[in-house]
Amino acid sequence: MGIRNSAKAVILQDEKLLAIKKQDRDGYYYILPGGGQEHSENLLEALKRECIEEINADVEVGDLIFIREYIGKNHEHFEFDSHLHQTEYMFLCKIKAGNKKIGNGTNPDDGQLGVEWLPLSELFEYRIYPQTMRGYLQDYFAGKETPTYLGDIN
Predict the structure, then answer these.
(1) Distance of CA 59 to CAs 23, 44, 45, 95, Å?
(2) Adjacent-strand bridge partners of 60
(3) Hey, which bits of 1-54 come out as E strands?
(4) Which residues form the Nudix hydrolase domain (predicted)?
């Protein structure tokens, strides 16, 4: 299996981060909206499509702020995703004016329960993947210098 590219949306509004809510055997967890790039689709097109499918929102894609790799065999979920190697490109995004209802979109993720706005100041109280991102996001929005390439993190 090859390396999969994925585009993710970092959407902050009123000091709250938009996240997709899911559940596993350990309880609720959250991920950023976005997903896999399809053949002949650039990353921005992929991200716009994924946001409509997952959060029912047309987004304006801004700057690339983080790149994260996920090599499944190196992390706690290796028993079911040891084959996975994914590179995620995280873009700062804004929801375009005119979006009426943010929630599950036309083609939500498997197991997607809904969409929630998580207070930026309370990110460490939530199980957000990648978990290491919580501190980077808080630092980024506080105006602190952060690396763009984060490496193989979860």
Answers:
(1) 25, 10, 11, 4
(2) 94
(3) 4-13, 16-24, 27-31, 34-36
(4) 2-141
Helix (H, G, I), strand (E, B) or coil at 62: strand
Place of tokens 């009123």: 14
Q: Which residue has the tokens 């995280």?
A: 90
pTM tops 0.90: yes
pLDDT in tens, 112-136: 999 999 999 999 999 999 999 999 9
Distance CA 70, CA 5 (A): 10
Residue with tokens 């979109």: 105
Give dist(CA 5, CA 88) in Å, integer: 6
Q: H or E element: which one contains 43?
A: helix 43-55
Structural tokens at position 153: 């993190």
Is the separation of the CB atoms in 120 and 71 below 8 Å?
Answer: no
The domains located in the chain, with CATH, are 4-152 (3.90.79.10)
d(CA 94, CA 100): 14
What is the dihedral sign for C-alpha 54, 22, 87, 102?
positive
